Structures are given as C-alpha cells and as structure tokens.
Automatic annotation (TrEMBL):
Residues 412-431 are annotated as: Disordered. This is DGQHR domain-containing protein. It comes from the Bacteria. Pfam families: DndB. InterPro entries: DNA_S_mod_DndB (IPR017642). Residues 414-431 have a biased composition (Polar residues). It comes from Amycolatopsis iheyensis.
C-alpha cells in the first residue's frame, strides 16, 4: 500500500504551490525556485522607480503595498548599485548561454505574511507559496533585477532561433524566505546583511579565482624568481601584497596583487584592458593560451626586474601604483606577438620597450606626473589617482601618443617649452 505524502498535507494545490524546502526556524526556510517562478513572486524592483510605469503598477493594491515596503527596506538603484546591474546581468547571461551556470548567491526574500510550512519524514518539508503573493528582495535585489535583463536577452535569442527555450527553464535560483516579519524586522535584516558583514577585499578575491586567464598568468609570474636590489633572489610572490588593498611604506612587498593583475590585463589587451579592473577577462579564443601566458610572463618579469630598485622604493617612486602599472601594460602591449594587438602604436621589441620605459622619471615629486597621474591634496601631499580616473592619461604619456605629457614624464621640454630650432626630440619609439 502506498504511503501518503505527508509533506503535502495542509497545502491546497488549488491555492498555493508547495515548494520543497529546508526549515531553518519558525520564520525562515531555504529553497530553490524556477527562474519563471522567481520573476512572478518578486516583481522587477527597477519598475518601482520608473515614473512612466508607476501609475499602472499602483492600480494593483498588492504591488502598491509592496512598493511602499520596498521604499522603507531597500535602497534605490543609484550610483554603484545602478552601474553594477548591467555588468551583473552580462556575467549571469554569459554563464547561462554557455550552460556553465552553477548558481548565484541566495536571494534573501521577505514577507510580512506567515506562510504554511508542512514538515514530512526524514527532514523533508514544503512551504506553501500562495498564488498571486508578492515577496520583497531584502538582499540580492541587484541579482533579482539582473535576472529580468537575462531573461529578456535569452528570449530575444529564442525568438531569433539562436537558443532553445529550455535554456532558462532549467535554471533554478537559491533563495532564503523570511516570513511573518514586520517591516521593522525586514529593515533590521537589510542592515545586518549590508552593514555588519565584512566585505572581501579585491586582492583576496582575485587570489581565489582559478578560472580567469589573467589570474592564471599572474600565478605563473608569481612563481618566477626575481633579484631584489640587495642582490637576494626571491620568488615574485614574496614582493606581492596578496592580503591587503595597499602596500605600506615600510612593508617588504612592492605592489599589490590587483596592481600586478592590472599590469597583466593591459599588457594582454592594451587600452581595452583598462575597462576590466578586477572583473574577469573574457576567455582567450583563437590563440595559444600557453604561448600567451609564456610571453606575457616574460614581458612582465622583465619590467619588474629592470625597475626592481624603483618598485622597492615605494616612498620615492610611484611606478608600483595601480594606475601607473595599468599604463605600463598599455605600452607593453606593443611588444606582444602571441595574440592580436589592439594598439596602433609599435610594434616594439622587448628591448625597445624597456629602453623607452627607462627614459621615464618615476619620481613622485618633481612635478613629472602632476596633472597626469598624480594630484596634490590641500595639505600638499602627492597622491596617485586610480586606473579608471587616469589610466588613459598615463597610457598616453607612456606610449607617447600625447607628446606634451610624454615629454613631461620624461623630464624633457614640452613642445610649448621648446625653443625655435631646438633639436630636442623624444625617443624614436615614441615618434
């Protein structure tokens, strides 16, 4: 005789969907939802901020109530949250399209309604999700909004005959469901998730990623040996700060892991590499990845070794700053032969590249980098700006595409300062 499924008792299938779950406590369960179900349960949060759509949305009392609660619990899509949305969507889309999606962090869902949870044998349970009920994304709202963009892109591919509908049907989203909580409790949950947690710094995150081709090349480089200014032979890993975002003036390390990766990325892709920052770079296609890795490791090692004394003297020189290393990589891209070059400059041999870089004044002081890569604080201290802010200006100066700044960082008279008939010219590699 077949035993009844006790987990279904208490759930009316005509009124609610019974979702398998794990019970955490009286007000929390863990579950996975089909993507289509998630999109129905949690309306796209960006629509609540679209003034054109608000009137139509708010004719639905349930949506209007959800919008009011969201305004009290969540933050708007502005600043970094807004700019991160399309990037996150592209990241998810690429994995879904390639069928390599292995899940995303659980989205934290909340509702003031108390849900029915029916426990079965051996720890099984089901939570009843009433049809037509809406949930608030207390944490993971950017991911929820990104899934809307992903579903639209995939649907366009399906319509064009470039993908199968099942590509999204097989996607499941992990969720935490917190139910029976007041708005104040949901606000506290938002606070706990976004304030009390310690964010992993970029260096630590990069060091854990084994898939990214740039990071794999960085690991190859760090295993190579380098001679320090004192003559001691050490692995490059010993002069790379891997646990902190900055290198202290008295620290034995020369550069951060993220700065080294930036150098690798811009050497690999040239100027287009400036856009990546700490984000994963695309897979290397139609090239010999082993040959690329060998060549880039050789180029980067040569740069680190040639200017070891300046990398080591962080108090006097700025060569190890991320924005400067980004520009060095753009210049070094001219010497890359193992993959297509995106630079209109060059090509250069490695010796020509090193000779060109040797002409540069890497001093923090002296005004060589003022207005290009450095700024003065109100107290007169020199600070180096970040790659996104000055990466292109630094690249122009090092490549020589801007003759004025190229002369400035080399301590040469700028074109405006040259006297009539002056024979002073820049390095032939920069003309």
């Amino acid at each position: 005789m077949t035993q009844p499924n006790t987990a279904l008792k208490g759930i009316d299938p005509s009124k609610a969907a019974g979702i398998p779950c794990l019970v955490v406590d009286d007000q929390t369960v863990l579950a996975t939802l089909a993507l289509s179900h998630l999109l129905q349960l949690v309306p796209d949060p960006t629509q609540f901020e679209d003034k054109r759509a608000q009137h139509a949305l708010f004719t639905n009392p349930a949506l209007s109530d959800l919008a009011e609660k969201r305004q009290e619990v969540q933050r708007y899509f502005t600043g970094a949250k807004k700019s991160n949305l399309p990037k996150y969507a592209s990241f998810i889309f690429e994995r879904v399209e390639a069928r390599t999606h292995r899940g995303t962090p659980p989205i934290c869902l909340g509702t003031s309604s108390k849900l029915t949870v029916v426990e079965g044998p051996e720890g099984t349970a089901k939570v009843a999700i009433p049809f037509g009920r809406y949930f608030l994304a207390v944490d993971g709202e950017t991911q929820r909004a990104a899934w809307t963009l992903v579903s639209h892109r995939v649907y366009e591919m399906v319509q064009a005959g470039l993908a199968e509908e099942e590509i999204l049907e097989n996607v499941r989203i992990p969720v935490e469901i917190h139910h029976g909580l007041s708005v104040e409790a949901l606000q506290a949950l938002f606070y706990e998730r976004n304030v009390l947690g310690a964010k992993v710094n970029v260096n630590e995150a990069i060091s854990k990623d084994q898939r990214d081709p740039a990071t794999r090349i960085v690991r190859t480089i760090m295993a190579m040996a380098i001679t320090q200014p004192n003559g001691q032979r050490v692995p490059i890993s010993s002069v790379v700060m891997q646990q902190s975002r900055q290198v202290g003036k008295k620290a034995p390390e020369w550069i951060t892991l993220s700065a080294l990766r930036t150098l690798v990325v811009t050497t690999m892709f040239g100027r287009s590499g400036l856009q990546y920052g700490a984000k994963p770079v695309p897979p290397l296609v139609n090239v010999d990845e082993e040959a690329v890795s060998t060549e880039l490791a050789h180029i980067v090692h040569a740069i680190l070794q040639t200017f070891a004394d300046k990398f080591a003297d962080k108090e006097r020189y700025l060569i190890g700053a991320p924005s400067i290393m980004a520009g060095i990589g753009v210049a070094a891209h001219q010497a890359v032969t193992s993959m297509p070059r995106s630079s209109e400059q060059g090509p250069l041999t490695l010796d020509q590249l090193l000779a060109s870089l040797s002409e540069v004044r890497w001093d923090k002081e002296g005004g060589f980098w003022e207005g290009i890569g450095t700024r003065k604080t109100p107290k007169g201290a020199t600070t180096v700006a970040g790659p996104k802010e000055v990466g292109y200006a630094v690249s122009d100066a090092l490549e020589g595409t801007n003759r004025t700044t190229a002369a400035q960082v080399r301590g040469l008279p700028t074109p405006q300062q040259e006297l009539p008939g002056s024979q002073q010219v820049l390095s032939p590699t920069l003309n």
